[in-house]
């Protein structure tokens, strides 16, 4: 008995402890706009079964035979137009890093809290930052997928990756995931203030304001994804907060991909139709995007604007995402402080 007790190690390797990690996670971004970086990024993205739900046997021949040969070049050019040249990275990355830095400063009163950021696709990966938090002594981690509205293709896949990391750990940190905040008064208020502020900078008034959310295939909604309803609720609360009619604040869905039917009405078709019907002035915002990115800066601020003007419209404004603005950070901080309760 005594012999076997003596053979046991007297202590485990030294570990840091007592910290709480907050990990902000956004969608991801390529490392560069070149073909190889774009292909690597799109491959990781488009092999995610939460994003493309088709069976591999049907999807992979199309993905590897066509999409990954043609799309990297085409989308790389679009990324080039909206690349943050000062930092040689996409704005999504710039804003996500800045949000983490500002969050850390705002939580400085809690000396045991460490704030970090990661991307679901590309770098820095969720696993690498969770490992870094753990090494710094985080026994608890609050995982914040940066999507106000829940979708399996976005929120759930971030959570999946974090739990996949835990799967390999002997000594797991406790993990909390942040729920959607599509109806949080702080979020609705921030959107309203950002609209009002932006419209005040224009010398014209829009006849219509479009809230353009990223779409998902209609079939995902049919299978029970709550995304569509959460987008509608955000828009309804925003309308109520602004005192606007359904006609003035219109909900649309953008960024269709592939041949399937996606959530409607489509943003591109609506923009075209409004111009053709004689509407001369519109503004578009993207309330589902925490940060500006390819889908807002290129697809809306460039392409949708061009289409509106081409079809007879006269004035087009893109209202920026909340990004790392004071209003935007107030939303993220409200959510984080609430979800940290009992931990700090
Ligand atoms: C079937 C494919 C896709 C689904 C479903 C999807 C859902 C979805 N995406 C976002 C947010 C973003 N998507 C972004 C880019 C992007 N999205 C898809 C495809 C689907 N998205 C692709 C292929 C791409 C890459 C660009 C392209 O090839 O067109 C981005 C921008 C990233 C950046 O670096 O700027 C964001 C953000 C949401 C919120 C969502 C479902 C609710
Ligand atoms: Fe997308
Ligand atoms: Fe797009």
From TrEMBL:
Its EC number is 4.98.1.1. CDD domains: Ferrochelatase_C, Ferrochelatase_N. InterPro entries: Ferrochelatase (IPR001015), Ferrochelatase_AS (IPR019772), Ferrochelatase_C (IPR033644), Ferrochelatase_N (IPR033659). Fe(2+) binds at residues 214, 295. One of its GO terms (molecular function) is ferrochelatase activity. Keywords: Cytoplasm, Heme biosynthesis, Iron, Lyase, Metal-binding, Porphyrin biosynthesis. Pathway: Porphyrin-containing compound metabolism; protoheme biosynthesis; protoheme from protoporphyrin-IX: step 1/1. Transmembrane segments: none annotated. It is an enzyme of class 4 (lyase). The keyword Iron applies. GO terms for cellular component: cytoplasm. It is found in: Cytoplasm. The keyword Metal-binding applies. It catalyses: heme b + 2 H(+) = protoporphyrin IX + Fe(2+); Fe-coproporphyrin III + 2 H(+) = coproporphyrin III + Fe(2+). GO terms for biological process: heme biosynthetic process. NCBIfam families: hemH (TIGR00109). Belongs to the ferrochelatase family. Catalyzes the ferrous insertion into protoporphyrin IX. This is Ferrochelatase. It comes from Shinella sumterensis.
């Amino acid at each position: 008995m005594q012999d076997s007790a003596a053979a046991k190690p007297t202590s485990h390797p030294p570990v840091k402890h007592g910290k709480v990690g907050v990990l902000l996670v956004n969608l991801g971004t390529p490392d560069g706009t070149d073909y190889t970086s774009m292909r690597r990024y799109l491959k990781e993205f488009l092999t995610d079964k939460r994003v493309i739900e088709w069976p591999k046997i049907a999807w992979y021949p199309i993905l590897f035979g066509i999409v990954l040969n043609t799309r990297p070049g085409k989308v790389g050019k679009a990324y080039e137009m909206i690349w943050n040249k000062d930092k040689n990275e996409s704005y999504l990355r710039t804003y996500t890093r800045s949000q983490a830095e500002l969050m850390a400063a705002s939580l400085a009163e809690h000396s045991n809290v460490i704030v970090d950021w990661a991307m679901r696709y590309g770098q820095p990966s969720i696993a690498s930052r969770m490992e870094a938090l753990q090494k710094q002594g985080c026994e608890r981690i609050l995982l914040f997928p940066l999507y106000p509205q829940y979708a399996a293709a976005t929120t759930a896949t971030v959570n999946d990756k974090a739990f996949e990391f835990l799967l390999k750990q002997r000594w797991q940190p406790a993990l909390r995931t942040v729920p959607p905040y599509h109806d949080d008064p702080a979020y609705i208020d921030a959107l309203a203030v950002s609209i009002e502020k932006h419209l005040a900078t224009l010398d014209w008034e829009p006849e219509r304001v479009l809230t353009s959310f990223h779409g998902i295939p209609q079939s995902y909604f049919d299978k029970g994804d709550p995304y569509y309803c959460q987008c509608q609720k955000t828009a309804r609360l925003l309308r109520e907060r602004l005192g606007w009619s359904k006609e003035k604040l219109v909900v649309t869905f953008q960024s269709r991909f592939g041949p399937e039917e996606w959530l409607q009405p489509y943003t591109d078709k609506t923009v075209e139709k409004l111009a053709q019907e004689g509407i001369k002035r519109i503004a578009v915002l993207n309330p589902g995007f925490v940060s500006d990115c390819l889908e807002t800066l290129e697809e809306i601020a460039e392409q949708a604007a061009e289409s509106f003007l081409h079809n007879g419209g006269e004035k087009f404004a893109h209202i920026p995402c909340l990004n790392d603005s004071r209003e935007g950070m107030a939303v993220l901080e409200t959510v984080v402080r609430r979800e940290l309760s009992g931990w700090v």
